[in-house]
Amino acid sequence: MDDPGTDDRRRRVPRTDVVLADPRLADAVRRLGRDLVKSLVAAAQDRARAGEVAPESVADTVVAALPAAACGMRPVINATGVLLHTNLGRAALSPAARDALLAASGTTDVELDLRTGARGRRGRTALDALAAAVPAAQAVHVVNNNAAAPVLAATALAAGREIVISRGELVEIGDGFRIPDLLTSTGARLREVGTTNRTGLADYAAAVGPDTGFVLKVHPSNFRVTGFTSAVGIAGLAGLGVTVVGDIGSGLLAPEPLLPEEPAAASWLAAGADLVTASGDKLLGGPQCGLLLGRAEIVERLRRHPLARALRVDKLTLAALEATLRGPATPTYRFLHADPAELRDRAARLAARLRAEGIEATAVASEATVGGGGAPGVPLPSAAVALPHPLAERLRLGTPAVLARVQRERCLLDLRAVPPEDDAAVAEAVREATRAG
């Protein structure tokens, strides 16, 4: 039987228009939109009818539930020790790139020559910045992600023909998607050569013929094969007399001394590659996009292919890419080059601050990784704050959300990919998570 007070409680639940008249919610409607706020009001009213909140607290309940933005994605502090965490959107954009996004969010001259008033080359300043960053490339183009880059190349250069590729480079790039499936979806045929662990120049030479569209070299960035192995570099493939396309994956435009085995676009072009593809949101530290760099006639052929229109990037990506290339060091660069001694000092200070408040916290040595398929097996010395492992879930669900790494029954807050200016926010998140427990 219902509680005798149920009907009275339901009658006291304020109407939607009354709740929306609260000045705090009127401002939220302007900022977030009426539909979103109304849905929160309806949810709070249902809670009041169920007795979970007092009818007079409906407006307060709605205010407490208001999101920071109309977008459902929540900011996350990355304390996993993975610099380019795929599930967290990989590279964090630089302040310059964020400013560029805001500047490009309105109407812009993305495809207009303001001097003449006529149509201009789309994203010309971003493309100029990319060309300047890789002088070895005769021409450049940008598509919406790096998987799209070899797909465009295969469609334009090898549809109905063969792509020669080593069996050791038929990689899966994530979420179940595989390089061979992407390439054959274009109508190209794969001519696999060599074995998983050993492929020689003679294997390629025997496969090249009149049906060859191009030879593809894929850097197997998300795994390593060691032991009895051999592979052919770009310089060797360039002597075969056919077009050579190289996918470096991780997005280094120039060699990085800290990652000597990670290929760079400039190096592969100098070695003789006709076209190199790379990611914009990995080690380059920019927005998600696919970079195509190489011989002018090939890049132009790809740029004018009908599929290129379906794969083009928007003005926001172009703006962020240009600011990444022309602006100051990106967060990715700073995380990669972080001083281990400074990381240890930060971890010690943060742990001491938490211990002083009665929270079990210890500064410990840690190892970070590049992530995003880059530099597999290369450890980056780091430092972390070790906490009781139950805090990991509470930190993940808090505001701001903090994603930690659970290892050996400990919650580790690795600081390698945490900007120093976020240390105070991390400390407050730990306090809140401790109180929640």
User: What fraction of the residues are assigned to beta strands by DSSP?
Assistant: 15-25%
- How are the strands of the biggest sheet laid out side by side? 5-13-12-11-10-6-9
Low-pLDDT windows of residues: none
User: Class by helix and strand content?
Assistant: alpha/beta
Mean pLDDT: 93
Number of helices, where a helix is a run of at least 4 consecutive DSSP H or I residues? 19
Q: What is the share of helical residues?
A: 25-40%
User: Rg to the nearest angstrom?
Assistant: 27 Å
Characterize the biggest β-sheet. 7 strands, mixed
Distance between the termini: 36 Å
User: Count of DSSP E strands?
Assistant: 18
Oligomer: single chain
Secondary structure: elements and pairs:
Blueprint lengths: L5 H6 L4 H5 L2 H10 L1 H16 L8 H8 L10 E3 L3 E3 L10 H10 L7 E2 L4 E2 L4 H10 L5 E5 L4 H11 L3 E5 L5 E3 L2 E2 H6 L4 E5 L7 H7 L4 E7 L15 H5 L5 E6 L15 H6 L4 E5 L10 E5 L1 H8 L2 H5 L4 H12 L4 H6 L3 H16 L6 E10 L8 E9 L2 H7 L3 E3 L1 E3 L2 E5 L8 H14 L1
Parallel strand pairs: 1-16, 2-14, 6-9, 6-10, 10-11, 11-12
Antiparallel strand pairs: 3-4, 5-13, 7-8, 12-13, 14-15, 15-18, 17-18
